[in-house]
Amino acid sequence: MRLLLVEDSAELAHWIVNLLRSENFAVDCAPDGETADAILSTQRYDVVLLDMRLPRMSGKDVLARLRRRGDNAPVLMLTAHGSIDDKVDCFSAGADDYVVKPFDARELVARIKALIRRQSGGKSKALVCGDLHYNTDTREFSHHDVPLVLRRREHAILETLMLRHGKTVSKSDLMESVYSLEDEASADAIDIYIHRLRKHLASSSAQIMTLRGLGYILRAKEDA
């Protein structure tokens, strides 16, 4: 899962980025509205965390431009005030949710997870592919009730495939889910992560199939 944080307070941004990375999210950060708008015009994100009041361009204007481009990425507005006017402004601009500063780390993570779950089109907290289970609240995988221990990027790839269970996911989409702008993206590394995941799933009825020239798909073996 790849997130963009737009926040002009360096101290708060540092805290949020570390929090989200500890939750296995790939996070990019922009310090002002114009930088965020430039990034959002070329990059795709699973969730955007957008401060309402930003230098160089307001969060409301950044969001308006995002929506005009037809980008429906879930947007969580960060606002310093919890007034009715601020809440109305957030939703009128096209935001999906908002959180009032100062906020608790658990509330922020819970709201992000709820937006991701809503975007995936399912209200269920549990996704299943064969005997592989994924809890969207804890973001944990299990196989026969035993937690599946994965490295961060392996987890990101399997999570993307599980959220799009039964649909083909291109290698470029997997790269976007794994790498932040600070990372050195490698298409060859995706093949290595897929190979490792197949080893993890060797005894599972869930399998990752390669569709040559198209990408990868997660299916239960009986559906393959």
Structure description:
Helix 3 links the parallel strand 3 and strand 4. This protein folds into two domains: 118 residues, Rossmann fold, CATH 3.40.50; 98 residues, Winged helix-like DNA-binding domain superfamily/Winged helix DNA-binding domain (Arc Repressor Mutant, subunit A, Orthogonal Bundle). Helix 6 crosses helix 7 and helix 6 crosses helix 8. 40% of the residues lie in helices and 22% in strands. It is an alpha/beta fold. One of its GO terms (biological process) is regulation of DNA-templated transcription. It holds the Pfam family Trans_reg_C.
Structural class: alpha/beta
| Sheet with the most strands: spatial strand order | 2-1-3-4-5
Cα-based radius of gyration, to the nearest Å? 18 Å
Q: Distance between termini?
A: 26 Å
Which regions are unreliable across 5 or more consecutive residues at pLDDT < 50? none
Number of domains: 2
Q: Quickly give the CATH architecture of the largest domain.
A: 3-Layer(aba) Sandwich
Largest sheet, described in full? 5 strands, parallel
- Given this structure, which CATH class of the largest domain is correct? Alpha Beta
Determine the number of helices (DSSP H or I, runs of at least 4 residues). 8
For this structure, what is the CATH homologous superfamily of the largest domain? Answer: Response regulator
Order of H and E elements:
EHEHEHEHEHEEEEHHHEE
Number of DSSP strand runs: 11
Strand percentage lies at 15-25%
CA-based shape: elongated
Taking all residues together, what is the mean pLDDT? Answer: 89
Question: Under CATH, the topology of the largest domain is which?
Answer: Rossmann fold
Share of residues in helices: 25-40%
Domain Response regulatory: 2-116
InterPro entries: CheY-like_superfamily (IPR011006), OmpR/PhoB-type_DNA-bd (IPR001867), Sig_transdc_resp-reg_receiver (IPR001789), WalR-like (IPR039420), WH-like_DNA-bd_sf (IPR036388)
Keywords: DNA-binding, Phosphoprotein, Transcription, Transcription regulation, Two-component regulatory system
DNA-binding region: 124-220
